[in-house]
Amino acid sequence: ASSSSSSSSSSASSSSAPGATPLARMLLLGYRGSKSNASDAASTTPTTVEINALIADDATSPEAAAAEAVALVAAGHRCLKVKVARGHGTYGARDDAAKIAAIRAAVGPDVAIRADANRRWNLNEALTFGLQVADLGLQYVEEPVADPMADLAAFHCTTGVPVALDESVDEALRGCVGGAAGAAAALAELFEPTFGVTALVLKPSVLGGFEACAAAAAAARSCGIAAVVSSVFDSGVGVAACAHLAA
After folding, report:
1. 35 catalytically annotated
2. What's the pTM value of the predicted model, to 2 decimals?
3. Most buried of the four, 18, 27, 103, 244, by CB within 10 Å?
4. Active-site residue among 35, 83, 99, 203?
């Protein structure tokens, strides 16, 4: 799993303390610790959690976005996230595609690029974007359409662009009980292969806590889908806890 930053600037990596037990393991397995397994944990190396950096919304032109991407990569980031669908209609979608193309040209093929549309596109607008970035190696586009259940399959099957889900996870898990098994049942419809879902974006403060996120992550990973832990205006303490969950 990886951790996603909600600010325009973030550190390149985060490490848990030597001997620390990842939070997800404690939540899912009921880990309590003992003298024997504590000594085993102490012998392990620290866990490094990769994070992404967010291209600032004020980098509106392709040139400005590319320049900021180069600076972030120079600072050590290997994954960049770009907010899209902030413009008007298909014209805005084309502008977003041009921004992604400029970033890819500037940082090369080895830096991961993610886009996040926050459900702001209709299907036609999403297709306009997706067809133009299909060969740019996007890791995924997050919530590309306003009506996922109706349009997600058409988007992915037409463009081939991988998809991540965020708001859809929150909706699916509302009122969910039963731990990992309950989460798997609630999320099953989102794992439809034609949707092209490769990652779930999990926010503990939105989903109802770390237990809910750990259960959703377990359900996703059992289906070969990545879990990306993110934060929403959390303090440093909250972000650190998210990093432990991602580990």
Report:
1. no
2. 0.80
3. 103
4. 203
